[in-house]
Structure formats: structure tokens, C-alpha cells
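Teaching soon. Invent one.


***
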Amino acid sequence: MLKTHGCGDLRAAHAGEKVTLAGWVHRRRDHGGLTFIDLRDRSGLAQVVFNPATSSVAHAVGHTLRGEWVVQVTGEVARRPQGTENAKMPTGEVEIIAGSATVLNESKTPPFYVNEDAPVDEAVRLQYRYIDLRKERMQRNMILRHRAVKFMRDFLDARGFLEIETPILIKSTPEGARDFLVPSRLQPGSFYALPQSPQQLKQLLMVAGYERYFQMARCFRDEDLRADRQPEFTQMDLEMSFVEMADVMGLVEEMHTELVRKIVPEKRLLATPFPRLDYKDAMSRYGSDKPDLRFGMEITDITGLARTTQFQVFKAAAQSGVVKGIVAPGCAGYSRKQTDELLEFVRGKGAKGLVTIALEKIAGSLEALTQEQVRSSAGRHVTIDEIKAMAGRMGATPGDLLLLVAGPEAETNAALGSLRQMMGERLKLADPSVLAFGWVVNFPLLEWRPEENRWDSPHNPFCAPIDQDTPLLDMDPGRAMAKQYDLICNGYEAGGGSIRNHKRAAQEKILALMGHDAAAREEQFGQLLGALEYGAPPHGGIATGIDRLVMLLTGEENIRQTIAFPKTQNGADLLFGAPAPVSEKQLQELSITVKEQQRSGERPAGA
């Protein structure tokens, strides 16, 4: 080994020991005849002193060092002179008096400073990701990710799970998102697909009798990207035999509870056991099936009150739809410009409009408010008594701003849900040190697609209906509820799972309702349907996103900060310049012809 200790491992107890360190020059300072450097490796920082009185040769080397050079230093650990200790560094009580030093490699001036946390354009960070990954923030994220995954592995191993790898090259099947396709050289014109998830494979393992499976599965989906989504990602994937919903949910809840307490003890769980929300209730109260439970601002239905007003917009909406709203605490002072911005926001989320009612801050209660102390975009079409009734129903107080939307229930819930999340972030209502896990259950099993004249699954086609709703599949499939459970946290879906159909007839009925005829069912799902005829046990499972979970644990706002080598928002790899054209020889080997207009030869946008 080129070093005896990690830079960040030295403490006062090491004083007097001779050590050899190796790492990168984090900072360099010249103080008269002395040269100081902070030497960095993955374990942390150590201060090294180059003193000509100790070693003129080492001092000469120290004088040449520059940022990000790789250097090896041998010297004695000494306590820092009294008054010079650095309490901000774990190694701040000691320093290494250099006796010898060797430059292992020089470095060009990096495109950004590693020893500063100043903002850097993300395209530059991703192009030079190997430098960006040297930063303390990124190393902290990668180390926490490792520890979280190791915890999961150990947790599941202790409970009888086997880690089994499943293929990356599989067959394309319709499971929701668009597949990434891989052409076959040996079978021209045929393609593999990269797995969107190991869904069918893990069910086959249950049929094979393994009972408890898991893996940290690589998954691939060719879909539009966003802050919490990447084209390739990792999920903790598990499946269990002879279980019901409560068994899977209980295991996963225990694992996440223990993980948070062990890996990020500085975080606080909002509630244990995790609260459970009915899907319809979640959509009605929060306008989302993955609500942020760290703050209230729940959606309130005031349709009954709206029917009795003289405001025609409300009266008309209340006849065929709903009137609902949220309370923005302390926002009665919002200007016309600010409320207009909120109007444009909800229009962008599908609402036709937004009615705002500002309740002036007064010493008294709602009952003391006068018409002159209320500002509303509805003018005087809503009386002061009607406003008081609405405000009382919504739990508002003087100084608050009522934000009301009228229209069809689904669109109204969705618009107010987005507005609630945005206002919660703007007003900083969510405590960043809190993790608010919860479960959402009782999802619809199927949703009608009128443009395609068929039913579709909101999650995946392998989910079983709750037992008492099985007869509805022959009468009214839209009313059937699923044995589906989603794990949510801080406004994100952290995972999703279900109890599966373990009998062929039950699975085929779902696929038939989704528009797959007998030939298509056999072609696309024959491997699973056939297996279900050979003693498939009752089984179910879940998959939770590792990248997204680590984003929540670290407090990052983008999963790109939790992945070593991520893609950009448009799927580009700026480090390797991918995706990129390939040679004509490679295309010929694969029997592929590319249209000329698609072969511009340009690097991906953003590269």
C-alpha cells in the first residue's frame, strides 16, 4: 500500500506516530518559510506541514504542489500548537510534519474548484463527472447510498431472502413505459428489450419455489425525464410467496424505519407505523396519490356552500362538478401580480380559473370581518356572510388567503394538488429534517381508455383485485379495487407493489379486459401464463427506488446527485457523448439501415 492511514482517520491519539498518506491536494497555503497543504482522500482531510528545518527536500516538493495534484507524504503526526486547532475538521487537533514527499501525478487546472461549494453549471459538472465526484457533497451521497443498500441487503438476508440476478436482455412486453430495444446480430430483425423491471421474472421465481427473492435491479425506461426520473435506475426489488398485503407492507415498513434510524439518525420519522390513506381519500384531500404529509393545507370541498351563492361561476360548477379550495396561511397581503401568477399556475395544471379571497389581518375572529376587509377576485358576487361560511369550513383565520377552483372533480383535485405542493414549498411549510412515509391503498384496478376503447392498468397488468371485487370484473370493472400498495414519502412515490394474480384464468381475464386477444396474450405473456398452470403459489412483492430514496435521505432535490454517472434531462451522457452514431460496419452486422435525416452526426442536445 502507498499509505498507512486515511487522511481523515488521524486523531490526537496518533501523535508521535510515523505515517504515510496519499491523496489529492485540497488546499495549499504559504506562510513565510512554511508551506501547508490540506491533503484529501475519501476518508477526509489532514493538514500537512512542510518545514525546511525538518526536510529541505520535502519542503521543496511542497512548494511546487498545486490543487488536485496527487501526492504521497511520509511524516510524523504532531499535535497542533495550542490555539491553532481547527474544530471544523475531525483531524483538526493534529498535523503531519512532512519528512518526505513524492508527486504521484500532476493535474491540469480543473474546470471548477473541488474545495468550494460554489454553483457550477450542471453540464460542466456532468462532462467532468470524475472531478465532480471528488466533492465532499457527492462523496457523502455515494457513501450514504452504499450504506443504505448494504443495510437493505443485510436486513433481507437476515429474514431468509435470496439475492438472485435476473437477465438484462429480455423480450419486449407491453408493461407501461416505452422499452429500450437492443438488436440481435445472430437473429437479424429481432430485438431484445432492456427490462423496465424484473416483474415477470420475479413471479417466475416464486413459481420456481424460491419463496423470498430480492435484488438491487437495474431497470430501463424510455420515457420523458424529470428531477426524480432517469432512463436507467436502480430499484430494490423483492417478491414473497404465501403472503397477503399486510405481510409485504409490514416487512417494507420495518426495513425503512430501521434504515432511517440507523443510516440517517439526524432525520425524524413523522409517524410510525406509517399512516395509510385510501386512494380516493388522498386524491380528495391532497389532489395527489403521493401527497407530502409534512404539512396540512388540505383541500376542502365547499360545493354545498357554493350552490347557495349568487356567484354564477360557483353555482354552475356546483351543479355538475365541485368547488374546492385550500388556505394559504398568512398570504392575505398577496398583490394582484402574485395572485395572477397563481391563476396562471393552476391554468397550466388544467383548471379553468382561480378565485382568490384575501381575509385582512385583524385582531378579532372571522365573525368580526367586514366586506371592506375582504378582497376577492369574485368581487361582490360573494357576500361577506358567504365568505365567512366558506372560510369557516376551510379552517381559515384573518390574514389568510383562500384559493378556490371550480370544475370537474378530477381536474379540480389535480390543479389544487399541484397548487398545494407549490405553496407548501414557497411558504416552507415542510420540515426538511422530517421523512413523512405513508401508504396509499385501494387503487382502482383498471381505468377506462375511451380513445382506445379498452381498460388499462394504472400500475401493471399483474395486480390482483381485492377478493370481494372479483365479480365486478364481469359486471363493472371500473369499480374493482386492486391489491395495490404504494409507499410514499415527502411528495414522492418511494415504491409500489401488489399481490399478484397467481392463477392463469384470473390473469387472462385482466389481460383480456385490457384488449389483449388470445394470440396476443400467448405471444406477449405466454411464459408467465404457462407457469401459472404449474402450481404457482399466492405471491406478492414491491419495488422501491434506490436513487429516489437516497435523494430523500440526503435532502437533495434531484436524483442526479445520488447517481455516480447520470444522464441529463434529455437523456444525454455528457461524459461519453452518448447517445452517438455508430459505424456503418456495426449497422451492417446488425442488419440495420438508418434513414439519412436521422444521422446528422451531431452530439446530443446539451452536450
Q: What stands out?
A: Residues 599-607 have pLDDT under 50 and may be disordered.
